[in-house]
User: Fold TrkH family potassium uptake protein from Tropicimonas aquimaris.
Amino acid sequence: MPAPPVLLAGLYLALTLIGAALLSLPFAATQDISVGDAIFTATSAVTVTGLSVVDVGASLTLFGQVVLLVLIQIGGVGLMTFAVLLLSSLGLQINTHSRHVLREDLNQSSTHDLMGLVRSVIRISLAVEAAGVVVLALVFVPELGFRQGLWYALFHSVSAFNNAGFGLRADSLIQWVSDPIINLAVPALFIIGGIGFVVIGDIMEKRRWRLLSMHTKLMLVGTVALTVYGMAGFAVLEWTNEDTLGRLETVGAKLAASWFQSVTTRTAGFNTVDLSQIHDSTALMMIALMLVGGGSASTAGGIKVTTLMVALMATVAFFKQRSPRAFGRRIGPDQVLKVMALTTIAMLTMLTGLFLVSISHDGDFLDLAFEVASAFGTTGLSRGSTGELDTLGRTVMIVLMFLGRVGPLTIGYLLATRKVSRVKFPEGRVYLG
Amino acid sequence: MPAPPVLLAGLYLALTLIGAALLSLPFAATQDISVGDAIFTATSAVTVTGLSVVDVGASLTLFGQVVLLVLIQIGGVGLMTFAVLLLSSLGLQINTHSRHVLREDLNQSSTHDLMGLVRSVIRISLAVEAAGVVVLALVFVPELGFRQGLWYALFHSVSAFNNAGFGLRADSLIQWVSDPIINLAVPALFIIGGIGFVVIGDIMEKRRWRLLSMHTKLMLVGTVALTVYGMAGFAVLEWTNEDTLGRLETVGAKLAASWFQSVTTRTAGFNTVDLSQIHDSTALMMIALMLVGGGSASTAGGIKVTTLMVALMATVAFFKQRSPRAFGRRIGPDQVLKVMALTTIAMLTMLTGLFLVSISHDGDFLDLAFEVASAFGTTGLSRGSTGELDTLGRTVMIVLMFLGRVGPLTIGYLLATRKVSRVKFPEGRVYLG
Ligand SMILES: [K+]
Ligand SMILES: [K+]
Assistant:
């Protein structure tokens, strides 16, 4: 029996290959799709990234689109379910103290009720997606007729809730840039999907700020702060850019587009503005936001909002010369160590990926950095370079999407089962900085 | 009395302004230098960065060059001396246990002998620089005559030992790309200057690997690993580039140039190859190396080799499910916290700087990133964009050089005097990654 992380990665690899095989069937596409394109598309769907080398709406048949949507659903909610399953399997291996910590964190009366959590995840997902279909149908059915409109509503609802970023139009949601329903319903779907089930469960149960767990408070504060930061940044930098916000006529439309681009960056992947036209400074800001991503155990990717928050709080704590804490709770050294490991791995992976892609492709460096961050953060936003990559470049992108989706979870599993070293080393000191 | 870190920053600001005033004197330059250029140049010298908006050899008179060299000497060794002075002042404030830790780290029998350390620093600096003058004179005197040759030898010896990167030619050391003495003596000077006085003292005293402190071992292993990595990377990526290594005729010359460019990147700042002609992938690798920099309490900048090493060891430890350690010594949670704070601050500073510069300047993004990393790492390598920056851009670069040089030390002071919080917070847990 291989170790669980290896098993998990293997399962997702298998799912990807099955998806690629299905997408390669003659009746899955209206035109020939190469094996490489099929693997890329299946990986992008299973990892809920949304980067695409084919035009989903035009090149895939209804069958192909259904295959894609199933991959998205399994990849998005399935990985989340797996996370919970992992936690449950791990509940049997850890000592009583850790189990109590775990139980408190999950706000459960017993670690054996984790299967109940899994059922809640499935239930909430289906409920939210169904609500999404109804609301989005209000936009799509009048425009596209009943059958196609309903299919659009279903596809975009599932894709949005799972933070997959796949749409049926080549230009994502640009034509609905000022549509109020699209600007509210789609972000609502991917924010709910991306904030993490534990947070949703905590809010549904407690309903009062004071009672919420530290994790939930950190997620809520972090999400609001990042959203405001991204929205203000996008608005200020792009307000007069004639190719993006400048062409929109009302202040409301500009703010709506800034709001949408801010929330989509962590890690939904839809866009209502042509991202190839944004300024370099805006692209840099979006790269940072894509790498942060959404919440743990959610349909979102990135290093996660809480990882950033703990890094910031550790920095503040260091300057204030005390141990890191938030909302009256201490953040232990093991959690700082985890953040250190996560950010180091993320940085090295991002740099290595960018390095390899820049060897194989001579395009604009910032555009490449944008695509690499989008792949590793499983965001799916694009400035167009992904389509231009050669085989090496696309292979790197496939690996990055896979690592971006499976990596953090695998790391999480390793942490949860850590054992204490029996050898006690004397402490050495090192000069830093 | 202001807090010591504020005082330290104020002292360096004062030194910079005095230097700028001296460089603005009519007999300091052969042509008019603007106030902005004088401030930029003085900052670059005091922070031993080496980025320049004037041609030092052509635009400054001998008086101007002497002013520059004095600023470099105070900035390079002076900050180091200040670091030791800070440690000594702090030895009076910390408890007995911490003092013992400090004493062990400094390999001293008493914390009151720190003034002896300061004297050693000055002595070693002068001895190494004098040796550098003699060796470099062998190259410069035959080429430029006795007086100018000796001045070149003195200027480059001091500039190299202090990792300042300032040369007297507009194209740095490119014309000596294959000269064996330049390829050995100059790197020897900046490696000795940049590895850290504590390391040199430890090696001089112990002379045997087994007896060296953990810090020294980490620095030696890290320096060798980074040098080999940078040299191999530069050679592989640039071997056939007709504008860099490709134009060199022998394998030996190509390897020598690769060696030089590898060691100079952390953070000497001289170059023997035209860096505006290197590939994007090479530039990315060099950006990473510039941000790492050299050793703590040395003339080098960057987040420091040991900071990278601890981050890597913390990551390994996390995966191996044990506490971080190296060479049989444990690395405590407070040191991981410090690394976390340093890297977070470095990342935010680098991103903010790049963001501001990219708003004010529409040049190639990678070139801008290169200059920003060069300023913050106080490296001084340039692909040419620094000269093109407007006032906002140059101001950002000045601030980055200052933060790159003063920041880590200031942080170090804060750490060393940290007090323990008397309130005990219950530990909370947070989902990460
Ligand atoms: K996505
Ligand atoms: K330098």
The pocket of potassium ion (ligand 2) is lined by residues B 48-50, 163-165, 267-269, 378-380 (CB under 6 Å). The first strand of chain A starts at residue 325 and ends at 326.
